[in-house]
Amino acid sequence: MSWHRKHLLDIESLTAEEITTVLDTARAFKAVGERAIKKVPALRGKTVVNLFVEPSTRTRISFELAAQRLTADVINFSAEASSFKKGETLKDTARNLEALNADIIVIRHSATGAPHFLSRFLNASVINAGDGAHEHPTQALLDTFTIREKKGKIAGLNVTILGDILYSRVARSNIWALLKLGARVTLCGPATLVPRVFEQMGCRVTYNVEEAIAQADIINLLRIQHERQRQSMFPSLGEYSSLFGLNRARLALTKPDALIMHPGPINRGVEIDSEVADCERSLILEQVTNGLAVRMAVLFLINGGKGPQEVATN
Amino acid sequence: MNKQNFLAERTGSRCEPGRFFMSETILILNAPAIERALTRIAHEIAERNNVSADVVLVGIQRGGVQLAERLNGILTGIWGHAVPTGNLDVSMHRDDLDQRLTPNVHPTLIPFNINAKTVVLVDDVLFSGRTVRAALDSLIDFGRPHRIQLAVLIDRGHRELPVKADFVGKNVPTALTDNVRVQLKETGGNDEVFLEKK
Predict the structure, then answer these.
(1) Is B144 helix (H, G, I), strand (E, B) or coil?
(2) Whether B104 contacts chain A with CB within 8 A
(3) What is the ipTM of this complex?
């Protein structure tokens, strides 16, 4: 078990062993959050910059708190209140942040590959907090952490991802992580949002929601990404809700120990009914708690991933 | 055995248990000696601490965890009651995180209150003292013990910090480049401690 990476850019390039290393490390950091003193000095004197060019509440707060609990200094940078408005490029912005001796840059951007781009010229570590519809690695790590914690394993589980797959970076990262760890992944949603091309990744694609959830151990619901859709991909939210929404009647068709997940923010009454979102089989709030532990683990591992040689040359 | 295999075995850093023909690896404690050392440490802990109900054991991950469990077993025999025993991972408090690859983090489990207790920290090998420094820092986050004592199976010298063990199984003079390898049956193999000369 070891970690040698300087950046966390995607799940696709990680090995199953590396994913497991993050999950094991996160377990120890989750315990830190349960103590009276929820802070450790692992990143003392380091500076973490949250460079959020696309809006986010949950992920930014989670990364901010994770960095603070590791005793790092945190700068939050949002596009609305910055020189992006004045036309500064991403590269120049990142270079400026690095000139302030930032050690780790956490970036969210609407363009696929933005974190990879930064990683090519920055000395600082780069963590992808969501790039376009490409990947959202820490979300997949916290989802697999939650599944492993609840079910004791990942391999052999049936995981159904239901909703807007096409525009979802959460779906892509989750698919990579789940397949690498040996789960069987079923994708379901409107045909316009769940193209058959995903079968090439090794998933099963179905458009029958009852069939998709019948054998599932985990049902991961995804939000409809209005902001990414160039045109309407289905007639109405009401129709989506009646055809694919998880309500009490559909929940009754699932295995009694099937668990419900959602990366948030949830649209009550669209992809999930209120009573299902709040039922005891819903892991939605535990995902938030685990997200903090996983992001602490990622920051901790990335900080050390540079290894002794690279530090020596700095 | 052909020449290549023979050389590989001679120069290998690990040796098979029971094979001590290599000059590089010296057995310094065998199973009965480890048992005797732990029994003596347990009696010293009992002698030093009059109120047994105030004593708790905390093993430092990884090597100290099993030793703390064994001390608990022996102390249970001496005191007639079990001693609360936890384990502590110090990776998040290390002072060398910048100079090495990220260490593996193992669970910390201290399921009891350490306030006003005497905490006996247990580790396998005392070397630079930096692990103990990190352990002290980490432990303080869990409460304010009345007193902290340190028990180690091997003290190999070369301290870099003003740290001293209260209970020592065996003092072993070593060179800085040597490696002390503690092997316990809980983690596979026999109870043995080796000094590996580089």
Answers:
(1) coil
(2) yes
(3) 0.77
